[in-house]
Amino acid sequence: MTSAQIDDKGPDGPHAAAADATTSGEGYQRALGARQIQMIAIGGAIGTGLFLGAGKAIAKAGPSLILAYAIAGLVIFFIMRALGELLMYRPVSGSFSEYAREFIGPFAGFVTGWTYWLFWVVTGITEVTAAAQYMTFWFDIPQWVSALVFTFILYGVNLISVKLFGELEFWFSMVKVTAIVGMILICAGILTLGFSDAGDTASVTHLWSDGGFFPHGIKGTLMTLQIVMFAFLAVELVGVTAGESKDPKTVLPKAINTVPWRIAVFYVGALIMILSVVPWTEFSPGVSPFVEAFKKMGLGVGAGIVNFVVLTAALSSCNSGMYSTGRMLRDLALNGQGPKFFTRLTRSGTPLIGTTFSAALMLVGVWVNYQWPGDAFTYVVSFATISGMWAWIMILISQIRYRRLAERGLLPQSSFRAPGAPYTSGFALAFLAVVIVMMGIDKDTRISLYCAPLWALILGVSYLVLKSRNPEGKAFAARVKR
């Protein structure tokens, strides 16, 4: 449904009926239960960005990284509540692509859908390649073999049923959660009881005694914002599950409302504990802070444990990519903005062709990465970060426009209104703008901004070609001004 179809004058108009129709699942099976949705939501906020990327961020900001995660976490909560308001208004599998199409325009929906699809394809390529590299920690086998096996296993899981996908994601998330909670408890024990090799030096004073809380100044903290936000990419995945949740009106708000404590425990809490046990000056940019902490504690098995957890995080991300790419391609096809054959579902309700096409591209990417692991591949990988943030921007703008229409009585009110909106949504947009500026200043992340215009040009040309072939189609109807 595009916004061009919405010309009713109130909540009882034709749009309301259409909204009810979309909640039936759009051909999908509503097989994801509350337990699975909750863990998907939790797992989406915990990835390799925390287990590996935090090391580089600690080196740049020191203990003030804790504050950066706390502020960024608040912004993520604003984004997720904005998404939640839209989901309760109309829970559809296309999620933010559908909302962008309805409240901003057909081209915005087109760009959002294809960009989010590319984000997960590229992420899947990098994560399955990383998982293969992690396997070499235990086994002396060619990297491409592990990558091939992992890709086929996850592809098979996603084709069998959405319930199996949810179950696998549940256990992937459980491993990550258990690892972080275990680390927090161990650190708490060291701080209070003084056991392990770090017992004599562990102290919360490390948070401010080694150069202060801002050892590199405010600028150092600001330069980590992009790293921090990258760690939260995929938290919005819970929105894509809306069309396959058994009870989206109940389950999704509960999952979204857990965002604050998830970030408080898994990011802020974990960093406070780790940096209290081990001074920030002892962490290296290219090494996981969890591995460094285990070494300082004298726990020899730490490296193996962290390697297993990071392997799980990488497979979890690739599993999510397999799931979301097929849904995004089907949503685009249903709206005339993608090939019609992507609309086909298997008997179990999974988008066969879309998932197969995406998985095939992931395999090609693994091969390219194996053959030419140079700058060209790095450019593509870096683009994943800005494309993921595009989805957040579209969520916020869509929610602001939806709220404006709902308050005028043109659309039904959501049962899960974002607190403080539209001001909180405006603040989140401003924060994301600051992050993008920081990306342009930092030479390590600047390349992702170079890739964005090229992708925009490809999408623009593709959209014009599709529109010329079907100028009267619903996918290209102008958005009604209200």
TrEMBL record:
Q: Which Pfam families match?
A: AA_permease
Residue segments, region Disordered:
1-20
Top-level taxon of origin = Bacteria
Query: Where does the UniProt entry say this protein principally localizes?
Result: membrane
Does the keyword field hold Transmembrane?
Answer: yes
Gene3D superfamilies from the UniProt entry: Amino acid/polyamine transporter I
Instruction: Give the family per the record.
Output: Belongs to the amino acid-polyamine-organocation (APC) superfamily. Amino acid transporter (AAT) (TC 2.A.3.1) family.
Listed name of the protein: Amino acid permease
Gene source species: Streptomyces drozdowiczii
